[in-house]
């Protein structure tokens, strides 16, 4: 078995090191679709990575087709209703210029269009919900509106076509190249064939990887494969982080908004926490060690109530907008509604539908439990004034349009980011540096930066935990290049990371950075008549590409020393 250092260097240099062969899907021949719509770049998935890739590509003069399964672009921020998880430098240097501009545009929209108090309008770093998971907890519809504003000029100019409510269902592949994708309308059932010289997979689960026969990883690797200190004793392809169906709710004192008892309420009321470390605590409770100190109280406006809150009533003028902002509104994305009893990846369509429905039932059951059974500080039970907010998430039933996916398929990449590249423990072991001098692995082919704890939510095998704080890290170009496929690129959470490092590379600003880097990469490859792989391996092309990224407001390295966060 190679040493840990050898494994790191092999992967960093792109040496062929098979990680999890049983999880790979061989190339499957597909019949060539007839007819179609052409573009320079076809992007599957309209989440943050897909939007960023489209914007960067269009800004470079490429014609783009973007597909999105829901009717809302924006992924995590919008259709999944997840306020942004970010690093503490995000307001200044901790993301790309375009991502930070999007954040400021949302703040400007609140100052212009929302009934803020005079004091709130003067807050430079306005946080409409005063949520403590993020410095900018805002309504998903505000994020959606600003994303639509960004994309509209390219749509109007004919450079961008967005196929909302379309899912890619098939691919035409010849050798190591994708020739076309077949996308199906989820409303009419009609298919459209999309042809291009380049394709990007920005779907939440990495849907194009099995369709195109691109080799990929899923689940947890073993220490023998990666050398990661916290990797498994043996590969666990079925071990992925749970997903969550989020929802929004507000508190209407003196009113009763109790929903109908969910069909699976008895199941989830009896369920114990999935994770071994909190085994024994009822799932529908705040009894586990992490939740107990936080608690929940919408009347006192404490605990989980303010965690992902998107409306802080103190920032809005009382009585304005028909009283719409007289009470707080919060997003529920907690351990209590993390679904870890099955995966949406690599099962049958029936399995996925069953797990998705169970996750929806779990979220509804959590709401019902909060309304009728949750212990109150005054000794009573439940808050019947908790009101589901379908308008916030744009659905009839009040649940988010799409589940929040933390982990899906990941490409087998030229370079794979390991735990040892990003944690203090790993860097000290590899370089011998002191704790004060340790830095994350310096990728010479960096295409961006990111930072977040290596945070893994409860998994399908009951794992859960933070496997160490990370050092501010970089995003390597090698992690965006499949080892074999030449014209398919990951543009989301499906880049070359492991089960563990996915836990720190899956966040909003990093997904945006990945997509933005892909949009620029395709533009450079097109301009020079070459491949994305050649860009990485040709020093002059790589330097040209990195200069373009920097000119476009994408920092490639963290400053040393770091400024205060």
Rounded to an integer in angstroms, the radius of gyration calculated over CA atoms is: 23 Å
Beta-strand segment tally: 23
- Tally of separate helices: 17
Structural class: alpha/beta
- The order of strands across the largest sheet is 4-3-2-8-23
- Report the major sheet: 5 strands, parallel
- Overall, the morphology is globular
Distance between the termini: 41 Å
Low-confidence stretches: 1-34
How much helix, percentage-wise, in residues? Answer: 25-40%
Give a written overview of the molecule.
The protein has 565 residues and is of the alpha/beta class. Helix 2 links the parallel strand 2 and strand 3. Helix 2 runs parallel beside helix 5, helix 3 packs across helix 5 and helix 15 packs across helix 17. The two termini are 41 Å apart.
List keywords for this structure.
29% helix; 5-stranded parallel beta sheet; 4-stranded mixed beta sheet; 565 residues; globular; alpha/beta; single chain
Helix and strand topology:
Layout (H helix, E strand, L loop, with lengths): L3 H9 L24 E2 L2 E4 L3 H12 L4 E5 L28 H17 L4 H4 L18 H17 L3 E5 L1 E9 L2 E9 L5 E5 L2 E4 L6 H5 L3 E2 L5 H4 L16 E2 L2 E5 L13 H6 L25 E2 L4 E2 H4 L1 E3 L17 E4 L5 E2 L9 H24 L13 E3 L1 H4 L16 E2 L7 H4 L1 H8 L14 E5 L4 E2 L8 E2 L6 E4 L11 E3 L11 H4 L2 H21 L3 H6 L1 H13 L14
Parallel strand pairs: 1-7, 2-3, 2-8, 3-4, 8-23
Antiparallel strand pairs: 5-6, 6-7, 9-18, 10-16, 11-15, 11-17, 12-13, 14-15, 19-22, 20-21
Helix pairs in contact: 2-5, 2-15, 3-5, 15-17
């Amino acid at each position: 078995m190679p040493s840990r250092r050898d494994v790191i260097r092999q992967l960093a240099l792109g040496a062929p090191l098979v990680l999890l062969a049983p999880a790979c899907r061989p190339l499957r021949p597909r019949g060539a679709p007839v007819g179609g719509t052409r573009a320079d770049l076809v992007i599957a998935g309209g989440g943050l990575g897909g939007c960023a890739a489209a914007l960067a590509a269009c800004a470079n003069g490429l014609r783009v087709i973007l597909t999105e399964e829901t009717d809302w672009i924006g992924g995590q921020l919008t259709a999944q209703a997840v306020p942004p998880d970010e690093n503490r430098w995000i307001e200044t240097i901790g993301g790309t210029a375009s991502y930070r501009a999007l954040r400021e545009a949302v703040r400007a929209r609140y100052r212009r269009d929302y009934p803020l108090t005079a004091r709130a309008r003067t807050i430079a770093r306005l946080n409409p919900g005063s949520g403590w998971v993020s410095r900018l907890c805002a309504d998903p519809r505000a994020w959606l509106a600003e994303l639509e504003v960004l994309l509209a000029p390219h749509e109007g100019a004919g450079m961008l076509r967005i196929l909302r409510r379309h899912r890619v269902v098939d691919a035409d592949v010849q050798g190591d190249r994708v020739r076309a994708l077949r996308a199906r309308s989820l409303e009419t059932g009609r298919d459209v064939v999309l042809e291009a010289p380049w394709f990007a997979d920005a779907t939440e689960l990495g849907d194009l990887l099995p369709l195109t026969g691109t080799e990929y990883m899923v689940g947890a690797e073993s220490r023998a494969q990666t050398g990661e200190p916290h990797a498994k004793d043996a590969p666990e392809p079925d071990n992925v982080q749970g997903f969550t169906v989020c929802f929004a709710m507000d508190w209407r004192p003196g009113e009763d908004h109790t929903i109908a008892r969910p069909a699976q309420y008895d199941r989830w009321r009896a369920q114990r926490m999935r994770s071994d470390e909190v085994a024994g605590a009822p799932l529908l409770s705040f009894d586990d060690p992490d939740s107990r100190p936080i608690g929940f109280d919408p009347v006192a406006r404490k605990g989980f109530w303010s965690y992902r809150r998107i409306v802080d009533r103190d920032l809005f003028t009382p009585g304005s907008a028909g009283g719409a902002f007289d009470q707080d509104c919060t997003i529920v994305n907690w351990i209590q509604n993390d679904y870890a009893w099955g995966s949406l990846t690599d099962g049958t369509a029936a399995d996925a539908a069953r797990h998705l429905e169970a996750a929806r039932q779990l979220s509804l059951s959590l709401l019902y439990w909060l309304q009728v059974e949750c212990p109150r500080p005054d000794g009573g039970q439940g808050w019947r004034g908790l009101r589901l907010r379908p308008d916030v998430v744009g659905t009839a039933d009040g649940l988010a349009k799409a589940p929040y996916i933390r982990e899906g398929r990941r490409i087998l990449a030229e370079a794979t980011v390991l735990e040892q590249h990003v944690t203090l423990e790993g860097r000290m072991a590899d370089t011998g540096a002191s704790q004060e001098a340790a830095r994350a692995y310096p990728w010479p082919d960096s295409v961006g930066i990111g930072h977040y704890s290596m945070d893994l939510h409860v998994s399908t095998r009951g794992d859960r935990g933070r496997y160490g704080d990370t050092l501010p890290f970089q995003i390597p170009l090698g992690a965006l290049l499949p080892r074999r496929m030449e014209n398919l690129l990951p543009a989301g959470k499906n880049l070359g990371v492991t089960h563990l490092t996915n836990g720190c590379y899956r966040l909003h600003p990093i997904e945006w950075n990945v997509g933005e880097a892909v949009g620029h990469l395709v533009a450079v490859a097109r301009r020079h008549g070459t491949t994305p792989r050649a860009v990485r391996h040709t020093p002059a092309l790589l330097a040209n590409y990195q200069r373009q990224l920097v000119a476009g407001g994408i920092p490639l390295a963290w400053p040393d020393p770091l400024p205060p966060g």
